[in-house]
Design brief:
single chain; about 120 residues; mainly alpha; about 0% strand
């Protein structure tokens, strides 16, 4: 039974053994707290928690990494097409200017994804 917002593992079982959070953190070179934050925010790789033990499937991890690569490519495209000095300044300023720059970036990426679908 899953207790957070991240999606459950795919329905087809994997031949590979499941990874523990510690193994995944080492593999990704991140802290355990990062994995926990990703699980709580629904932004991390799919996982299951049989008997209260969090485990990650390798196929789901590969899919998550591939998806993040696609998103990163879209963000790079967006930054290249937006007025970079203005955007960079706004992102560094923080507050409302940063929020406005992030909104512009998110809107651009969403439109780009829709046009490529």
């Amino acid at each position: 039974m899953q207790s957070t917002k991240s999606a459950p593992l795919s329905s087809e079982p994997s031949i590979e053994p499941l990874m523990t959070p510690e193994e995944l953190a080492r593999y990704l070179s991140v802290e355990l707290k990062d994995l926990q934050e990703w699980r709580e925010g629904g932004t991390g790789p799919k996982y299951c928690d049989p008997n209260g033990l969090i485990r990650y499937g390798r196929e789901d991890l590969a899919a998550w990494i591939a998806f993040r690569g696609q998103v990163t490519d879209l963000i790079h495209d967006a930054v290249r097409l937006l007025p970079i000095p203005e955007l960079a300044t706004q992102l560094l300023e923080g507050g409302e200017a940063r929020e406005a720059a992030l909104d512009r970036l998110i809107t651009f990426v969403a439109e780009k994804m829709r046009s490529e679908s």
